[in-house]
Every structure is written in structure tokens, then in C-alpha cells.
Specification:
Length: about 375
Amino acid sequence: MVKNTGSSLLISVFFNYYNNMEFLPVSHESILKGAQILKNGGLVAFPTETVYGLGADAFNPLALAKVFEAKGRPHFDPLIIHIAAIETLEKAVNLNLLSKETRKKLFTLAENLWPGPLSIVLPKNEKIPGIATAGLQTAAVRFPDHETAQKLISLCGTAVAAPSANPFGSLSPTRAEHVLSGLGEKADLILDGGSTRIGLESTVLDITGECIRILRPGGTPKDAIEKLIGALQDSENKEQRANINEQGLTSPGLLKSHYAPNAALYALNREEIIKEPHETEREAAGKTAFMFFDGCTKDEWIAVHSAQKPPETIIVKVLSETGQPLEAASCFFETLHELDNSNVSRIYAQFAPGQGLGEAINDRLRRASCN
Ligand code: AMP
Ligand code: MG
């Protein structure tokens, strides 16, 4: 039941419409409630100094899949991981993968610009699920300069992954009412903390590559960063911009710009995957993997191929036995990584049904496929 504690007319309009969501002004009790919801795998929209975020437990893959579902994005974007103390940074990232010099720069930035509107891209801690980072081995981490955000994160005792709390394609929300009209009951709780102070997203700074650079300009000016760690590579040239646009982001050096498996991946619809592997393929060298979207398709595939005795070298994975897009999305990146680590040379992957999260899965399959 929505509790109407705000005075705005807009809230009253929505009051009777949504019934699984709460809209509460910021208070110790409402933040505690938010922390509990996050711990239980729910979604909480909360104010930060930049824009409102739609938060989920950064270690809970199902909760993270709900974030993508709520935003209705047709593709996966990496989320920003929010922390509330520098001491907890290593829960989210693995600093051992940084050179001594880069670690020094990181701490200079953190000491001077955190809390604040600066997200720093770092090698991720392996406990952060792939869906939080869209399969990347890096995570963008931020320490927001906002009391409510900090309290919420500390009370739930975990890191909170959050994109801006707006539906795909609409403006970032700077007031709780914007979140209500955009996402409505897709959040379990909206914490109303009034207008956000900065109203612009955080600056995203990648320090994992050979050159440190800004991937997205935002609330922390380039000058403030350069004063602390020296000149940054100019990310304004056309070639780089094209790269950022096409792939969503860049992370030179250490990591791939977006995750694509080393194996040749063939994205196939249900009918096509049931027929694989073809006679000629079966003789080919190397291990083959199948990544089915649902258990029914796998069963049908087994029925078709049992007479043909598929070779031992086939690995079979199912994203969701019951064909639930949320479950499938939550383990999608981990499954691909796992198959890649088992040295398969081919992956046959089944497209998801093409709506909602299925669309985001399919977008990723298309980008990774060679067919
Ligand atoms: P939002 O949370 O809506 O402000 O958007 C987060 C943005 O941060 C993404 O769209 C990326 O541009 C950037 N970002 C987050 N994580 C990473 C990462 N691991 N590598 C590069 N960019 C990232
Ligand atoms: Mg956004």
C-alpha cells in the first residue's frame, strides 16, 4: 500500500494507482526500511547529490536483474557501485590488480574528491556478479556525498549498485516525483529527499588502462582531477568518441571494452539450436558448448540428439529451467564466462524471447556472435 506522506498533487494522483510501492520522506525509519528491502533483494530509489539512483544489493544477481527490468533498457549497461566508506572499497574491487602508481593516484583522488560526484572504474572484486558490470571485469565505484545515500548503504551493510532511477530513454530524475512518474511501482520504496543538489550525473573516470581518462563528463570537473593526478588523455577526439558510442564504453589496456567470449559464439533461435550440431560440425576439433535459454528447449535437443550420441566433449548449460527472463539475465554473464573458462571452441547460444530483459540478452548475444 502506498503511504502518501508528501504534499505534492502528483503524489496524490499516484496514491491510489500503485499499491506495491511506498513513497516515504527521508527519516531514520524510512532509511532503515530501505536497507531491509535492499537486504531482501528489493529495489530502493534514493537521493544522491547527483541524481536519484535505483539501488539494489550489488552482490545479489537477481536483484540486479530487476534493476534492468525496471529501467526497460534494451541492453545491459554497467551499473555504478555505491559505497559509504573508503574502507569498504575492497568489497567491490580488487586493488591488487592495479600497479603501485595507479593505487597511489586512486587514493589521492579518493581522499580529495570522495565523497563526491566521481565514479572511478577499477578492476572488480570477483564477488560482484557479472550483471552489475555488464560482463566487464571492471566496476565503476562511487562514494556519494549525500547523507541519506550514505546511511542507506551503511545500514544495509553492503555495496549498492544503482543506475539513475529513470526509465530507459527518459531524463535523469532530480526529484522523487520524477522517479514516481517514471518508474512507479517498479521500485519497492522511493525515498523522498527533495531536489538533488547537483542534478547532473557523476563523472566516470577510468584508471585501469595505460592512460587515465574520462569516459563520461559529469559533476566533477576535469580540472579538479588534473590538479591532483596530472593531465588526462583527451577523450574528445572523434575516434575515441565513436568507440565509446558504439560499444557503450571503453576500457583500454587491461580489459576488453565489452565482454565477448573467446570461443566462436553462434546465436540461434529455438528451432535452429535444436538442430545443432550439424553432421560436419560434430566432427570438428575442440569442445562445444550449448547455452539454452530454457529447460524445455534443452530437453527437446536431448530427445533429437540422443540417437546420435552427442560426443562427450559437449557442455550444456541452461539459463533458466522454467524460462524466466529475470533468472536468465541474472546468470547470463557468469555462464558465458564459465563456458569460456572451460576452453570450448564453439558456443551455441539460444536467443531469449524478445521482450523486456530478453531483448537485453539478445542484444548482447548478437554483439558477441560470429554468425
Ligand atoms: P548511470 O548509472 O545511469 O549514471 O550510468 C552509469 C554509467 O557509468 C554507464 O552507462 C557507463 O557509462 C559508466 N560505467 C559504469 N561502470 C563502468 C565500467 N565498469 N566501465 C566503464 N564505464 C562504466
Ligand atoms: Mg543514467
